[in-house]
Amino acid sequence: MSWGVSGVTVRYRTLTALQGVDLQLQPGEVRAVVGGDGAGKTTLLKVVAGALQPETGLVRRPAAARIGYLPASSGVYPDLSVKENLDFAAAAYGANGEEVALRRRLLLERAGLADVTRRLGGELSGGMRQKLGVIRAMLHRPELLVLDEPTTGVDPISRRELWWLIAHAAAEGAAVLVATSYLDEAERAAELVLLDGGRVLASGTAQYVATAMPGRLYTGDRAPGTEDALRAWRRGRRWRLWRPEGCGAPDGAWLEVAQDLQDAVTVALLQREIEARAGGAA
């Protein structure tokens, strides 16, 4: 059975955190929610996990005991050891027996935590805490695993180990939803959803989102003139310039290039900003 949300809207007083959001989650696959601060990622994950009731819309999720949830913090108890944190999670979900013990040893070893089981949660590095938090969330083999930015601020090695845990959960059949600000991580997912201001700007596979970008993309050595300033940005040492459908090509100093996911996401955000400015001016 698939999980997800349809037409979900969440408001906090005068702030609309989510507006008509649709999201489908399939067993055995990873979905990524991408967006900057305030995009609505955490709100969406709370709705999916059952930690927040939407104002409108439908939510499909398994029973609470079959959900694993990692909040924006690691969820690790600082005054409990690594072993005690996992013992508590196992008891809370009724996950006992030799199979669970073997699973815990496998996950700890693969995450590089097998030698620190007596260390307190508060004594762990940021990457270690995040890995422990993910193991806690997936220890009971949930049908739905929801992870809120598990890799933010951690070192590259820990990121790689965290993604092994994420992929392992999906391989076991869980539907996995991961919030991230890293586009290279979103490309690992089966599909992604780009949120901005609580609205979905783009969704689908990374390749689809990239190729579906409207208009044409150009690169050049210098910043464009005033006319194109709102549709240009710097990438590395060179500039990117986006021109929507119907606009002619810029002068010969600009060369047309094929867009990738980073370009497509930037264009989607630029479109929203330009439309908002036009609406404000009207």
Structural write-up:
The protein is of the alpha/beta class and about 280 residues long. The chain folds into two domains: about 5-205, P-loop containing nucleotide triphosphate hydrolases (Rossmann fold, 3-Layer(aba) Sandwich); about 210-280, no CATH class. The protein is about 35% helix and about 25% strand. The strands form three sheets. The protein has a six-stranded mixed β-sheet with strand order 5-6-7-3-8-9, with helices on both faces. A four-stranded antiparallel β-sheet has the order 11-12-10-13, with no helix packed on it.
Short description:
The chain is 33% helix and 27% strand. The chain has helices at 41-49, 82-93, 98-110, 126-138, 156-171, 183-186, 206-211, 261-281; strands at 3-12, 15-25, 30-34, 56-60, 67-70, 144-148, 175-180, 191-196, 199-204, 216-220, 232-235, 238-243, 255-257.
